[in-house]
UniProtKB/TrEMBL annotation:
It comes from the Bacteria. It comes from Actinopolymorpha pittospori. GO terms for molecular function: symporter activity. Pfam families: MFS_1, Sugar_tr. It is a multi-pass membrane protein. The lineage of its organism: Bacteria, Bacillati, Actinomycetota, Actinomycetes, Propionibacteriales. The chain crosses the membrane at residues 60-84, 96-124, 130-150, 162-184, 196-215, 261-279, 285-303, 315-333, 339-359, 380-400, 406-428. This is Putative proline/betaine transporter. SUPFAM superfamilies: MFS general substrate transporter (SSF103473). Belongs to the major facilitator superfamily. Metabolite:H+ Symporter (MHS) family (TC 2.A.1.6) family. Residues 22-430 form the Major facilitator superfamily (MFS) profile domain.
């Protein structure tokens, strides 16, 4: 087995033209993947909870069941990280990303065709769960590959900024999925929307997949991977190697990821179900979420650029503190039913908190792992965190209770997730200033590569 402690690092500073193509391809492709993933979250809180489970199920139990199928996608993401991490380190970033977009988009399209519980009984939630599982595998392999296609050919001093650009896919995905869902629900009568209108955003995924597939197929392979292949340095068992030689690094990466995933889904998915119980409409949450997603198109690259100057770990720690501080004010604002206050706390919590944690991660995780196992390392850690983070709406619903009276416990959940990320970043070594130039892609994390 190859040791990753020493050795020459492939050149990664690609040409400006290559970098532009990689940024456009990765951002658009990532946007399509996250459109698919977020769309399911909105539907889980507003449609699936009563259409795909037995009639007579209480709203609370229906929400728990719907969020359970939602969580399945996150449980599948580590498997996707393992499979596509190995695939991406062995045969190339580009080929792995072509498969992930087909898997994600195909599963989403089929969700739009599924018969409900009233039509096929228990097979409806089972089929829904199976498709969500496929979605999870696809997105589990997407994030690491999409970011690596950019960071592996970006100059070291601006890797935070360039690495943050594919992260815009999350904002684009949330914006388009929530926007289309909200638009259709607002322009159709409730009966038609519940009967068939909700299916339209899912079916529209086929168009997005066709566009994304064209973009992915026209993209050149990462120059870092090309050089590894030319030099015969492809790792035979990248998953095994990275797990044996960098287990603590993977755990730190997972910890860094917990708050941005978990808190985001509590504030945008769980709160949909909670808002309805206190007399708000789903659009009272969806519209502020749309505005926040639009602002993220500015704040994500902003925080990426800040991490190039302030450092990755400090930027992430700032985000963790902001999210913890907003844990109570967020639910207080929702309880006031004041639209402006809800928007304000979402802007602070997500754009100043969550985005500060999320934006530097592409550069940070690239710098933590050598090129031979980078797809694997940058996929496994984040997707382990996704298991907990994606279950956050389910956990929050269980903590809140049937009458949603346990919101104090949900506030505690947000605080805990924020602290996990803060401590994980504190325990990690800064990588932004360690090296500059063409050989700066793999900087040992805290404790060295064998940690």
């Amino acid at each position: 087995m190859t040791s990753l402690r020493h050795g020459h690092e492939p050149a990664t500073d690609g040409s400006a033209a290559q970098r532009r193509r990689a940024v456009v391809s990765s951002t658009l492709g990532s946007s399509i993947e996250w459109y698919d993933f977020y769309l399911y979250g909105v539907a889980a809180a507003t449609i699936f909870n009563h259409q795909f489970f037995p009639a007579g199920t209480s709203p609370y139990v229906g929400t728990l069941l719907a969020f359970s199928t939602y969580a399945v996608g996150f449980l599948a993401r580590p498997l996707g990280g393992l499979v596509f991490g190995h695939f991406g380190d062995r045969v190339g970033r580009k080929k792995a990303l072509v498969v992930t977009i087909l898997m994600m988009g195909g599963a989403t399209f089929l969700c739009g065709l599924l018969p409900t519980y009233a039509a096929i009984g228990i097979w409806a939630p089972l089929a829904l769960t199976a498709l969500r599982f496929l979605q999870g595998i696809g997105v589990g392999g997407e994030w690491g590959g999409a970011t690596l296609m950019v960071t592996e050919q970006s100059p070291a001093r601006r890797r935070g900024l360039f690495g943050a650009l594919p992260q815009l896919g999350v904002a684009f995905g949330a914006l388009t999925s929530n926007g289309l869902f909200s638009l259709i629900s607002a322009t159709m009568d409730e009966r038609s929307f519940q009967a068939w209108g909700w299916r339209l955003p899912f079916l529209f995924s086929a168009v997005l997949v066709a566009i994304g597939l064209y973009i992915r197929l026209s993209l050149a392979e990462s120059p870092a991977f090309q050089q590894l292949r030319e030099e015969g340095k492809i790792e035979k068992k990248p998953i095994v190697t990275v797990l044996r030689q960098q287990p603590l690094t993977i755990l730190r990466v997972a910890g860094i990821r917990v708050a941005d995933i978990g808190n985001y889904y509590v504030w945008t998915s769980f709160v949909l179900a909670y808002a309805v119980t206190i007399g708000l409409s789903s659009n009272d949450i969806l519209v502020p979420t749309l505005i926040v997603s639009a602002v993220s198109l500015l704040t994500i690259p902003m925080w990426g650029a800040i991490s190039d100057r302030l450092g990755r770990r400090r930027t992430i720690m700032v985000g963790g503190v902001v999210m913890a501080a907003l844990s109570y004010p967020f639910f207080w604002a929702v309880d006031t039913r004041n639209w402006s206050l809800i928007l304000l706390v979402l802007l602070i919590g997500i754009n100043l908190g969550r985005d500060a944690c999320y934006a530097p991660q592409a550069a940070y995780f690239t710098e933590m792992f050598p090129a031979q196992v980078r797809y694997s390392g940058a996929s496994i850690g984040p997707q382990l965190a996704a298991v907990f983070g994606g279950c956050a709406p389910l956990i929050a619903t269980a903590l809140a209770g049937p009458d949603f009276g346990g919101i104090a416990q949900v506030v505690g959940l947000v605080v805990v997730m924020s602290l996990v990320t803060f401590v994980a970043a504190l325990a990690s070594k800064e990588t932004a200033f360690a090296l500059t130039g063409r050989d700066a892609a793999a900087v040992p994390a805290a404790g060295g590569n064998a940690s």
